[in-house]
Amino acid sequence: MSLLPIGLLALTQAADPTATLNEIFSRPEFKGGLIAAQVTTLDGRVLYRLNDHQRVVPASNQKLITAAFCLQNLPPTYQPETRFWRTETGLTIDSPGDPSLSYNSLLSAANQLKLAPGTAVRLREAYAPGVPIGWELDDLPNRYAAKVTAFTVDRGGFELWDQEGRLSLRPRSYGVEIRQIPGSTPLKYDPFRRTLIFSGPVPTGTKLVDTLALPQPDENAASIFGQYAGPVEFPPARPAELVIKGRPVSEILARCLQPSDNQLAEHLLLMSLRQTTDYPAAQTAVQKFLTETVKIPADEVRVLDGSGMSRHNLVTVNALCSLLAWEAKQPNFNVFRDALASPGIGTLAGRLDGIAFAGKTGSLDAVAALSGYLQTSDGRQVVISFISNHHLVGNSVIRQRFDEAVRAARAFRQ
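Predicted structure:
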């Protein structure tokens, strides 16, 4: 029996991606937690697996499901249209859902309509569920966890600014009261009571202090036109006086997936049904899409929201790899792939430099995820999904390990 020189033996072992991945995922930082991983070819052949049928919390990898579901139901060129009618009793607005509406675009619309002060504004919305199922109370004051309503403004948020010690909300306060009082707790915002309490010293100069969730995005958006007067069941049966076209789905997808925007994800989920809907209806539709169209086993996925903010979402890495492999065969795959983060772009800025990878990150407390498309060293494409739950170290450590795992997976040969 011939023996390999020690140096060549070490090189051979280092080039074995399975051994390297096993070594990475057996490190102390994963001990006592749950690590799930899978690497497959685009035709579904498994190259590596570890707990790949174990259900885990996906965090923002949930957005991959939302994006695929959206492209299955809406063409990339689809642009939502928000319509406006002047009526005898005021203004009626019909919103199919458009998360790209801004304060400036709505203010321009109000100026074009030339409404009298205090005009009664009534809304017909395709959806207005408010807080999605499973979102945590501590998150709700933040813009990333704003209530979800079809008619909205600035993705449901506004900004708290300091100018020479004086606090203000921009672009407007929407009825939120600011109280500056002595104390040591810098900020306490309650969107339900519409109060913001700031205690302690405010630095001089002009700077952005925080981004916050609007108290009620649809009512707040309506206030730009006049006085919110409640919902209406049907819009007028005549052409609208004004129509605002939103950004195309392809652009909204990129603005959602690359920076991992929760509001855009929730809107894409609910917009995709193109009818009056709510979360139970959307959940049923997505589950049907995953099990009947993508052919993912029903016990490998549970959908609660569109963004992954809910800790009640469950998925297996096998399900995510199957979804990504399925999406690669779809006519709109280029739109899907181009919307993903990549080294230097979005949530992968500063990560995986020099690696041909496009994918989605995910992060919650004690949850980290990374899934996407990887080009191996021999120029082939593989699908990877790595998810860690219940780790005690910081997510930054897990991200470093995942990046090592991506580099190791490049060595797979097909």
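Summary: Residues 1-14 have pLDDT under 50 and may be disordered.
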